[in-house]
């Protein structure tokens, strides 16, 4: 959470979503990335006879399957560029550099990469550049550390045939995807959370259908109107339906088996979800009357336990399953 | 002006498996698309537009698939659209494609949906640790299991019905070469003895995690006339949505599902679905959803769906075969699963379903749903052109 908000103020907090994703490469990208590991740049010949670098699996004009790999030179010509005066983390070079499109000798398309140059005055369209290979290469586009200026004349004998076969080919990699943003639950949920801190559950009533939403979202999804009237519900409620969880979820601290239930708090018009404790898992039933059990550090009740009241009649909660 | 009749003239699927490490995602979709073209005896140049669907971006970490996959799907110089409706996406993608033909915007449309669950983080993608919110305590099955218990309470169904569905679908899958699960030694006893994961849902009553793609070529009346094999004709198609959570939401039989099927039957002129429909491919990710959806889709009275299952009506040789392909319980490439239902319905009325063909199927329903019972998509296909 950010700085302590004023009492009742809307909350906000950073939210980072980051997962690793596996990618299988298929035959063409496998050959291209394995080639980089071996300091070999491969392109693919299209149905029209042009050479695309990086190579693609399917012809952008005819949709034909492309498998005719060729090797192109490690040097080429800048076709256009833009100066990057302030590199950010994760970019190819830590010092200012030029983004360049380089047409490698033997290729008909240009590859995007970074050019290590002292300043924008040292960069021009048509200049000759060559690959600076990374010291440690793993079969990734970053095996090309960057490009650097050179005086090599354009090579005449490119492209050259290549089988695309290497020992120990790279067949896949793991790429992280990351989103980072600020999450703001809004006025209604913030009010709900502030009340929870006082161990009270406060929903909002729709002015049109009169249903009480817990947690409130500031609007009734059925009527499409804003809600404002606050209504305290619970603390007791009824188990409307449930399941017995027998497999441990990733990162879950709870020992199995346990009961995961839908609980309609008294006065609420839809059920919320919670764990049932204080009773053997195989004795939990629909209609069981429960109350929240709080811990000192929890934002939400740790679990719900039986109140000892008689079970609720099915007709009283059958619309709240 | 009347709508152009829409025909399915080509169907292609991958052989769905746990992991396709040998192909890129482009290679996977290409395989299904090429098979659909081959079935229709058409080439890439015959296609006017491409409509593609997949599960939510963070399932596979693949943003903008329409951009990455345009080359593989021959979309250069043509319109390509992406459709986005969670687990129902395969169905709604096919309907968007069908509507482009019905509206005479395009004459021949390639539609495709896919998923590489082996390269996904489906569970994480589903339950993000959102600040201030109570974490989901039970995983995907834990979301569904309480609704199954609610159905059992409401209908009084005996607790064996879920196992009967799984046993039937896994046996049907043995007749479908594209199905992921081929459990040759399946028995009802084995299903009943499988571990109870989220009581009342057993392990064998849950869907697998699959890699796969499904494609169809849709054409207008002229395209259907040139089709080398019998086409399937679209007699009705509809989509409906409702919020995931609202006061009065019926998770056992959602209003949006009832409305969606009623719209499809109205378009197709069907008064008695149970009698007039010969086969159904229904999105059943957990076995108990078969009886639940039979009621939701109007094949049975409320509380009676399980009787169709129990009496064998939904078996391959029954009166209303449900999921002759083996269904989602036997192959679940999530993004593609809805389109597989639509495509399998088309195969049935084309008489092209092979070993799992329902004899004499003339009208079949394809059904998809997703997003916490939020989105529904369905179509009804027949062996004759629509007469209305």
TrEMBL record, chain A:
<dbReference type="InterPro" id="IPR002878">
    <property type="entry name" value="ChsH2_C"/>
</dbReference>
<dbReference type="Pfam" id="PF12172">
    <property type="entry name" value="zf-ChsH2"/>
</dbReference>
<protein>
    <submittedName>
        <fullName>OB-fold domain-containing protein</fullName>
    </submittedName>
</protein>
<dbReference type="InterPro" id="IPR022002">
    <property type="entry name" value="ChsH2_Znr"/>
</dbReference>
<feature type="domain" description="ChsH2 C-terminal OB-fold">
    <location>
        <begin position="231"/>
        <end position="294"/>
    </location>
</feature>
<feature type="domain" description="ChsH2 rubredoxin-like zinc ribbon">
    <location>
        <begin position="194"/>
        <end position="225"/>
    </location>
</feature>
<feature type="domain" description="ChsH2 C-terminal OB-fold">
    <location>
        <begin position="70"/>
        <end position="133"/>
    </location>
</feature>
<dbReference type="Pfam" id="PF01796">
    <property type="entry name" value="OB_ChsH2_C"/>
</dbReference>
<dbReference type="InterPro" id="IPR052513">
    <property type="entry name" value="Thioester_dehydratase-like"/>
</dbReference>
<dbReference type="InterPro" id="IPR012340">
    <property type="entry name" value="NA-bd_OB-fold"/>
</dbReference>
């Amino acid at each position: 959470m950010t700085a302590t908000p004023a009492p009742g103020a809307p909350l906000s907090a950073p939210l980072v979503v980051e997962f690793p994703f596996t990618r299988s490469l298929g035959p063409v990208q496998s050959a291209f990335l394995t080639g980089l590991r071996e300091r070999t740049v491969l392109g693919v010949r299209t149905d029209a006879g042009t050479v695309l670098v990086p190579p693609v699996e399917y012809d952008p004009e005819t949709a034909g399957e492309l498998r005719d790999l060729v090797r192109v030179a490690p040097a080429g010509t800048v076709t256009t560029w833009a100066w990057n005066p302030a590199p950010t983390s994760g970019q190819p070079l830590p010092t200012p550099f030029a983004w360049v499109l380089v047409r490698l000798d033997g290729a008909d398309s240009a590859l995007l990469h970074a050019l290590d140059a002292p300043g924008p005055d040292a960069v021009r369209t048509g200049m000759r550049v060559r690959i600076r290979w990374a010291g440690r290469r793993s079969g990734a586009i970053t095996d090309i550390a960057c490009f650097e200026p050179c005086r090599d004349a354009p090579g005449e004998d490119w492209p050259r045939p290549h089988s695309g076969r290497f020992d120990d080919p790279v067949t896949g990699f793991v790429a992280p995807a990351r989103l980072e943003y600020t999450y703001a639950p809004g006025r209604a949920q913030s009010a709900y959370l502030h009340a929870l801190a006082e161990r009270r559950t406060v929903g909002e009533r729709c002015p049109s259908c009169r249903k009480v939403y817990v947690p409130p979202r500031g609007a009734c999804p059925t009527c499409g109107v804003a809600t404002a009237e606050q209504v305290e519900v619970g603390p007791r409620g009824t188990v409307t339906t449930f399941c017995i969880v027998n497999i441990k979820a990733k990162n879950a601290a709870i020992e199995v088996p346990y009961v995961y239930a839908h609980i309609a708090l008294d006065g609420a018009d839809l059920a919320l979800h919670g764990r049932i404790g204080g009773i053997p898992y195989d004795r939990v039933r629909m209609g069981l009357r429960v109350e929240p059990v709080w811990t000192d550090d929890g934002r939400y009740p740790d679990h719900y336990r039986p109140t000892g009241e008689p079970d609720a009649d099915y007709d009283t909660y059958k619309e709240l399953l | 002006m009347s709508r152009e009749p829409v025909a399915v003239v080509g169907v292609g699927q991958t052989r769905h498996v746990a992991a396709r490490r040998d192909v890129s995602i482009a290679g996977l979709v290409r395989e299904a698309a090429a098979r659909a073209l081959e079935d229709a005896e058409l080439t890439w140049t015959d296609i006017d537009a491409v409509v593609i669907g997949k599960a939510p971006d963070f399932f596979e970490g693949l943003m903008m698939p329409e951009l990455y996959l345009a080359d593989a799907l021959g979309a250069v110089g043509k319109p390509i659209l992406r459709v986005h409706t969670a687990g129902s996406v395969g169905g709604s993608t096919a309907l968007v494609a069908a509507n482009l033909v019905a509206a005479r915007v395009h004459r021949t449309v390639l539609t495709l949906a896919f998923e590489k669950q082996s390269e996904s983080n489906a569970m994480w993608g589903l339950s993000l640790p959102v600040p201030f919110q109570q974490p989901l305590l039970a995983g995907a099955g834990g979301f569904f299991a309480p609704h199954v218990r609610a159905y059992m309470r409401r209908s009084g169904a005996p607790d064996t019905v879920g196992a009967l569905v799984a046993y039937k679908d896994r046996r049907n899958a043995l007749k479908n070469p594209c199905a992921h699960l081929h459990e040759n030694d399946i028995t009802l006893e084995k299903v009943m003895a499988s571990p109870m994961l989220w009581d009342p849902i057993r392990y064998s009553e849950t869907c697998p995690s699959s890699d796969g793609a499904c494609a169809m070529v849709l054409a207008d009346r002229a395209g259907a006339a040139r089709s080398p094999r019998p086409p399937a004709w679209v007699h009705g198609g509809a989509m409906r949505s409702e919020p995931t959570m609202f006061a009065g939401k019926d998770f056992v039989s959602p209003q949006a599902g009832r409305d969606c099927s009623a719209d499809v039957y109205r378009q197709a002129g069907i008064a008695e679905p149970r009698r007039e429909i010969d086969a159904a491919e229904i999105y059943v990710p957990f076995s108990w959803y078969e009886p639940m959806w039979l009621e939701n889709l109007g094949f049975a009275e409320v509380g009676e769906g399980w009787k169709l299952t129990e009496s064998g009506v939904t078996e391959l040789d029954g009166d209303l075969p449900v999921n002759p392909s083996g269904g989602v319980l036997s192959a679940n490439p999530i993004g593609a699963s809805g389109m597989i239902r639509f495509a399998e319905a088309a195969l049935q009325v084309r008489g092209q379903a092979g070993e799992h063909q329902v004899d004499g199927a003339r009208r079949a329903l394809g059904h998809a749903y997703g997003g916490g019972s939020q989105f529904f998509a369905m179509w009804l296909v027949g062996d004759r052109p629509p007469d209305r």
